[in-house]
Design a protein that fits this description.
By secondary structure, the chain is mainly β. 14% of the residues lie in helices and 42% in strands. Strand 6 and strand 7 form a beta hairpin. Helix 3 (49-56) packs across helix 6. Residues 17-29, 41-59, 61-81, 115-119, 121-161 and 249-271 have low confidence and may be disordered.
């Protein structure tokens, strides 16, 4: 190996090794495997070291380009303030050739970006050996592209109970959201990936008598490693959704075997192909001691907890990334597949008429959206896909909006796709782009035929950086109706909450401005008032009587640095021109660091009734003089609202404090109200607590 070749190999190692933890690649495409093949003392016949480097790293380059693309999408500036509307119908695929062409074009571009990143090429120019090696690798992988069959499984969710039980905290009334815990007036369904005994099953409990909780056998999902397991509970139907990875051993075709035997030429192929598949299963849970599977469904792509249920219809959204090499003669290698027990057991690629190919796509993936009836089990699911990747989901009872960041002309924008979901059908009805990026699903809202969205915009110049925030109101055709721009210069949006014709926005840099926004005139939205206080709220929760809770952190008014503890603010928004902070409660204020999952996952926040509210908290305490005294506390906090005052009623722990020296970090406690009692679950434990005296009623390990 000469000096130039060693330099090339070292450059490759520096680029690939750190990405092993960022890109989920087949074992054969891991950095370790690639280096082993490149440095092999018995090189592949006819391949020089230099050519081996480029051949084996071709697929890795594509993966690197994917990471680069994701990084670009999530970073970025925004300049112009116009809303651009795209006509959806003209971008529906005519045939599989259209789809292949779009994917192949993006893959070739990604590959070139990967080469430039790996080898320092400029303007896409490489020497003949590099280009020849890339072509060899592409042809070789395409010849051996394996297929994967979809297998069964999955589940679904449901909302809430009566006054004696709690329900999932959702954004839009009548639109249920997937969660890892569901309950009705009697039963609890729970999943925890942090406890080995529950790593592939749903635990089921009878909580009719909180002093004696009964655990049933539960529901085993799969022998594989299920990820992002979430549920819907709808009457006597439990729907479970999860992702798992399917791997398929590649096998050479007969033709390739003959070529190898006669010519003695080895074709380099990946040993393993992989893809993520998301599964949904509908169960009859009317008799928890004997649960029955009613329907199974599977679709390509990874599940990011983006699912909704409206009127018994599950709307399932996944992102299908195209990592494997595609073959234009085999649509199953580049088109998302679905399998529905209502129509058979065979996995089928989507028809071209169900696929949208927007222009200027940056991400080599599909967003796949299915509507699955959980009551009419014989009705086949309807599935659509759109090239360009998934994003943040907002759903009303009429429409689903998919919002993803897009980097274009040195600016970050949010691309919005709208699907009508009437009668369990899916119709792509509009697409537009607005400046800036969104913080989460609460940045969006639909009201009286208008769609409102709050974004943060950033401008980069060679010598400066500028950030501001916007509120856009779009009409039924997704054209701009009205807007407010340049809100809170050089601050970022931390939370948004809409209430009919009003919206509340929290921004932060050093102090926490809570903006009250009047949206009653869609053509002329306006800020009516603001409140500046230290700290910020990541989540806003409306209460009765023009009150609102804010969950976040306190901060120093002068420096903007966050302080210890979880900050609970009580806002009075009865006067839009002068919102007030009526009270503040700091939880775990004596800890070095504390946070609440409710700040970024609203479903962990629970309305317990009778002006009681619950949320998980974790505190970390450090002793600089004695490391042995360091502790981590995980608890479920109960807050009471009395008039305009907040009171901490309890900190309920399922586990004792743990030391940072321990390998165990709190899994995150969850709480629900069933049969009038607070039931808390964390990892492998369950506990019942009286909601008046806050004394323990029952505690046990989960089997």
């Amino acid at each position: 190996m000469n000096d130039n070749e060693k330099s090339l190999l070292n450059r490759l190692k520096l680029k690939l090794t750190p990405l092993d933890n960022k890109v989920k690649a087949p074992e054969s495409l891991s950095a370790e495997s690639i280096f082993a093949q490149i440095e092999s003392p018995k090189p592949k016949a006819g391949l020089s070291l230099k050519k081996r480097v480029f051949t084996l790293s071709t697929a890795a380059a594509v993966l690197i380009a994917s990471v680069i693309g994701i990084s670009i999408i999530n970073a970025g500036p925004k300049t112009n303030s116009q809303v651009v509307v795209t006509e959806v119908k003209k971008y529906t695929a005519a045939d599989y050739k259209d789809i292949y062409k779009a994917i192949n074009a993006l893959q070739q571009n990604d590959m070139r970006e990967g080469y430039k990143y790996l080898y320092g090429g400029s303007n896409g120019a490489w020497d003949d050996v590099q280009i020849e090696a890339a072509e060899d690798a592409t042809a070789s992988f395409a010849a051996q592209a394996p297929t994967a069959d979809l297998s069964s499984g999955a589940r679904q969710e449901t909302g809430g109970g009566s006054g004696d039980s709690s329900s999932t905290n959702i954004q839009v009334e009548g639109v249920d959201e997937a969660d890892c815990i569901k309950n009705n007036d009697r039963y609890i369904f729970y999943f925890s990936s942090n406890y080995p005994a529950l790593s592939n099953k749903i635990a089921v409990f009878d909580a009719q008598n909180p002093k004696n909780l009964i655990q049933f056998e539960g529901i085993k999902l799969t022998d594989a490693n299920p990820q992002n397991v979430s549920m819907f509970l709808n009457g006597e139907r439990l729907t479970v959704v999860w992702s798992e990875e399917e791997t398929v051993q590649s096998s050479s075709s007969t033709a390739a075997t003959i070529i190898n035997d006669v010519l003695g030429k080895e074709v380099i192929t990946p040993d393993i192909s992989f893809k993520s598949v998301t599964k949904a299963a509908v169960y009859d849970v009317s008799k928890p001691e004997s649960i029955k599977l009613l329907r199974s469904f599977a679709q390509d792509g990874y599940f990011y907890n983006e699912a909704r249920m409206v009127d018994n219809i599950l709307y399932l959204i996944t992102q299908y990334d195209i990592y494997n090499t595609i073959n234009k003669e085999r649509p199953e290698t580049f088109v998302p597949q679905v399998r529905d027990s209502a129509t058979g057991t065979q996995a089928k690629p989507l028809e071209p008429s169900c696929i949208i190919l927007p222009p200027n796509v940056e991400q080599n993936s599909f967003v796949v959206l299915s509507a699955i009836d959980t009551v009419n089990l014989q009705k086949s699911a309807e599935t659509k896909a759109q090239f360009g990747g998934a994003g943040t989901l907002y759903a009303s009872k009429q429409n689903i909006y998919l919002m993803r960041s897009k980097y274009e002309n040195d600016t970050t924008k949010t691309e919005i796709s709208r699907f009508n979901i009437g009668n369990g059908e899916l119709r792509a009805t509009g697409m537009c782009t607005v400046p800036g990026y969104i913080i989460n699903q609460f940045a969006a809202d639909e009201y009286n035929g208008y769609f409102r969205i709050a974004t943060t915009a950033e401008k980069y110049r060679s010598d400066s950086f500028y950030r501001s925030n916007n509120m856009f109101v779009l009409d039924a055709t997704l054209n701009l109706s009205g807007s407010i721009t340049d809100i809170a210069p050089n601050e970022s949006i931390y939370s948004v909450r809409y209430q009919g014709e009003k919206a509340y926005m929290v921004t932060f840099r050093q102090t926490d401005p809570l903006f009250a926004i009047d949206l009653s005139d869609p053509r002329n939205p306006k800020i009516t008032g603001q409140l500046k206080i230290p700290g910020f709220s990541n989540y806003l929760h409306p209460l009765e009587g023009n009150l609102m809770l804010g969950i976040g952190q306190d901060a120093d008014e002068d420096t903007g640095r966050t302080k210890a503890g979880v900050k609970i603010s009580l806002f009075d928004v009865s006067n839009p021109e002068q919102p007030l902070e009526k009270d503040v409660k700091i939880l775990l204020s004596d800890y070095s660091y504390a946070h609440s999952a409710a700040a970024y996952d609203h479903k962990t926040f629970v309305d317990l009734g009778n002006n009681l509210y619950g949320l998980p908290v974790i505190g970390e305490k450090y002793d600089e003089n004695n490391y042995e005294k360091n502790r981590i506390t995980s608890a479920f906090a109960v807050i009471a609202l009395s008039g305009e005052k907040l009171e901490q009623k309890a900190l309920i722990q399922n586990h004792k404090d743990t030391s940072p020296l321990s390998s165990y970090y709190p899994a995150g406690i969850r709480g629900v109200k069933v049969s009038g009692a607070l039931i808390t679950l964390e990892g492998g434990t369950i506990k019942a607590t009286d909601l008046q005296s806050f004394t323990e009623l029952y505690a046990a390990d989960i089997k």
